[in-house]
């Protein structure tokens, strides 16, 4: 069967192969040629089957989001999104309005409240949620997804006995993990598939051709995780990361590329469960958060990954959690050898609180930093939530993207959606505009971290750049500006077409008219 050869011409092609390129020939799933339109192959020459006139549009590698929770993203897109609420009353009103649309036996699932920006930071109680939900169970995950507000009916005996339980209905740690499983366990398989498709379709419309699904116990169940990997043609490619200790063989069985992602070494700053060397300023006396893993457990997990030949990784936000993980890397290197550890291209998600010694550890072990620049945009700086939790100095030192890039740590950008929105252009801008000028990076470095960096983070080294002979994975944008010009504005261009290895996964309304041959 012959392959379709399509010439995209009269555009602005972002490629290192030819900075002046205005045309690109795609042969099936591969880029066959790049260069000026005047030098392009022609239909009459027999090398082209179809021509697409770009009218000056920008063509770039498609984005990769390196940390996503697909099902939760879909539910947030279609359901109860509390990100814009500004008070306890606003949350309760939103719950009541949404609950009224649901069956009487449904569980109300919502996400996104963040009390740190409210004038009155008191949150709804379990009893108040009982009333707002009309007697239905209510589960509302905090923006960080490491705490939740829960109605009385979900506070079962196992939840009440678990670490992190509070009678107010604000749950953290193990209590939160237990109640999250109950809430999402009430959702049917059909609803899960529908939510995942909604999330992936939305991602493709934003120029995203691949996402890294971060699952594991306490985050999403096995059935949910396997479903996220099942959608195939017509959607962005999903790389699965299963975060369970000493479960490299299981990760492979589930279809994951790594026993990584949300394997929790600690929690989150918003929930005060990120594990810190110095105490939180606004928590209980001497509160340092919580570490879920010991050095020995980290070591054992990495050795298990080496034995099974899969990528390992951890969720680690606080400096104490990161130190524990790096000590575990040292232990694994002693057992299997440093080069074998480095070859594994293991990763740490978030890595928000780092000093020079910890950054050096990432370099020593060849660790990928899967980071979310939007965290600094939303919660960093001198007056944000991080400053409330940590103080000004630690807040400005958090998310040290510039320092990581400066010493050659491989960066992969993501959103942690639904923690922050799927917004790749905005994510790049956040890295360029870090609250701390020392931690800013340039437009090209930010764009590379959100494109090629995401592919390299899962061991794919021949994607993310428009090069002859490389995969035809790209987006056509409704702008004539280059990436630097786009990133120095406030407006995101519209994705006309997003293509994954030669197959369109998103076609904007009316864009089929741009094919004259």
Automatic annotation (TrEMBL):
InterPro entries: Amidohydro_3, Metal-dep_hydrolase_composite, Metal_Hydrolase. Pfam families: Amidohydro_3. Residues 50-505 form the Amidohydrolase domain. It comes from the Bacteria. SUPFAM superfamilies: Composite domain of metallo-dependent hydrolases, Metallo-dependent hydrolases. GO terms for molecular function: hydrolase activity, acting on carbon-nitrogen (but not peptide) bonds. This is Amidohydrolase family protein. It comes from Dactylosporangium aurantiacum.
């Amino acid at each position: 069967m012959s392959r379709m050869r399509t010439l995209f011409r009269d555009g602005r092609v972002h490629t290192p192969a030819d900075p002046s390129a205005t045309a690109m020939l795609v042969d099936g799933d591969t880029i066959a040629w790049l260069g000026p339109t005047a030098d392009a192959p022609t239909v009459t020459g027999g090398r082209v089957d179809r021509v697409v006139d770009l009218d000056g549009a920008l063509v770039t590698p498609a984005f990769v989001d390196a940390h996503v929770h697909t099902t939760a993203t879909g539910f947030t897109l279609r359901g109860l999104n509390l990100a814009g609420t500004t008070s306890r009353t606003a949350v309760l009103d939103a719950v009541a309005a949404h609950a009224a649309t649901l069956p009487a036996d449904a569980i109300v699932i919502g996400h996104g409240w963040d009390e740190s920006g409210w004038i009155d930071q008191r949150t709804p109680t379990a009893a108040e949620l009982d009333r707002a939900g009309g007697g239905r169970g209510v589960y509302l995950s905090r923006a960080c997804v490491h705490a939740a507000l829960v109605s009385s009916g979900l506070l079962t005996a196992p939840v009440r006995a678990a670490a992190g339980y509070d009678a107010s209905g604000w749950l953290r740690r193990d209590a939160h993990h237990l109640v999250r499983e109950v809430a999402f366990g009430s959702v049917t398989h059909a609803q899960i598939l529908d939510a995942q498709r909604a999330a992936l379709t939305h991602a493709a419309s934003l120029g995203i051709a691949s996402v890294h699904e971060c699952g594991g116990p306490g985050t999403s169940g096995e059935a949910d995780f396997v479903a996220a990997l099942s959608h195939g043609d017509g959607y962005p490619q999903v790389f699965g990361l299963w975060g369970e200790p000493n479960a490299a063989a299981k990760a492979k069985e589930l279809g994951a590329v790594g026993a990584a992602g949300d394997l929790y070494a600690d929690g989150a700053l918003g929930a005060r469960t990120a594990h810190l060397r110095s105490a939180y300023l606004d928590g209980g006396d001497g509160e340092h958060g919580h570490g879920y893993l010991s050095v020995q457990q980290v070591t054992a997990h990495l050795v298990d990954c080496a034995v099974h030949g899969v990528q390992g990784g951890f969720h680690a936000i606080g400096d104490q959690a990161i130190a524990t993980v790096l000590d575990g890397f040292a232990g694994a290197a002693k057992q299997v050898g440093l080069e074998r550890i480095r070859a594994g291209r293991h990763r740490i998600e978030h890595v928000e609180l780092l000093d020079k010694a910890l950054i050096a550890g990432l370099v020593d072990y060849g660790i990928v930093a899967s980071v979310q620049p939007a965290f600094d945009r939303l919660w960093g700086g001198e007056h944000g939530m991080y400053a409330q939790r940590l103080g000004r100095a630690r807040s400005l030192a958090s998310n040290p993207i510039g320092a990581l890039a400066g010493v050659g740590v491989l960066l992969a950008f993501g959103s942690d959606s639904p923690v922050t929105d799927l917004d790749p252009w905005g994510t790049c801008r956040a890295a360029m505009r870090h609250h701390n000028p020392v931690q800013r990076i340039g437009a090209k470095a930010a764009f590379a971290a959100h494109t090629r960096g995401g592919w390299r983070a899962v061991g794919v080294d021949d994607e993310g750049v428009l090069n002859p002979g490389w995969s035809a994975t790209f987006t056509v944008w409704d702008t004539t500006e280059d990436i630097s010009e786009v990133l120095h504005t406030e407006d995101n261009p519209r994705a006309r077409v997003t293509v994954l290895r030669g197959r369109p996964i998103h076609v904007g309304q009316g864009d089929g008219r741009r094919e004259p041959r």
